[in-house]
């Protein structure tokens, strides 16, 4: 008979990543303006890199399929967006806030739809999930209606997420000892 022995040990990877997420979250809460500008710069640089990759791969895609021109257009759009983010930080912050709001809205609607599977499992959990997803939906709509406020709170929301994720990783690192 095969017996699997579970190794109980402290998970340093989870612990270190948890501490890094916690530090990043607290830094973002304390320095929201710097954090927002940093997010805009990171997205801008990422967009420029993606644009360069698309443009560089255009010639190899040209031989593979007829619609390779899409990679050329995508590369140009990525470059333009990246440059706009780098040189017009307010535009970048507003764009990120709107995209973040749309993402938040999409996740809220999906969460709302999926919460109904809990109805047959547990009525209290279903109601809790339903209320939380409705609350998320309302917040997403408010963010979408006022993207300036969304931009100002974006950093705070990301910071809270990083803190929650960090706490979870630290807990998991200790749980692997059990």
Automatic annotation (TrEMBL):
Specify whether Zinc-finger is a keyword of the entry: no
In Pfam terms, one family for this protein is DUF308
Entry's Gene Ontology cellular component terms: plasma membrane
Q: Which residues cross the membrane?
A: 12-29, 35-57, 69-88, 94-118, 125-145, 151-175
Keyword Membrane in annotation:
yes
Which keywords appear in this protein's UniProt record, sorted alphabetically?
Membrane, Transmembrane, Transmembrane helix
Q: What is this protein called?
A: Integral membrane protein
**What organism does this protein naturally occur in?**
Amylolactobacillus amylotrophicus DSM 20534
Q: Taxonomic classification, please?
A: Bacteria, Bacillati, Bacillota, Bacilli, Lactobacillales
């Amino acid at each position: 008979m095969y017996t699997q022995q579970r190794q109980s040990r402290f998970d340093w990877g989870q612990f270190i990543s948890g501490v890094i997420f916690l530090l990043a979250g607290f830094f973002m809460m304390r320095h929201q303006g710097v954090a927002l500008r940093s997010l805009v710069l990171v997205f801008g640089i990422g967009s420029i890199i993606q644009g360069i990759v698309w443009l560089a791969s255009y010639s190899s895609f040209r031989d593979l399929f007829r619609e390779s021109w899409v990679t050329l257009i995508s590369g140009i759009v990525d470059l333009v967006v990246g440059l706009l983010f780098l040189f017009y930080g307010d535009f970048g912050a507003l764009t990120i806030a709107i995209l973040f709001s749309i993402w938040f809205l999409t996740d809220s609607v999906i969460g709302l739809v999926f919460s109904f599977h809990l109805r047959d499992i547990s009525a209290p959990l279903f109601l809790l999930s339903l209320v939380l997803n409705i609350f998320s939906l309302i917040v997403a709509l408010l963010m979408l209606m006022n993207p300036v406020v969304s931009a100002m709170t974006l950093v705070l929301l990301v910071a809270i997420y990083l803190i929650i994720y960090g706490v979870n990783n630290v807990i998991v690192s200790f749980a692997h000892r059990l």
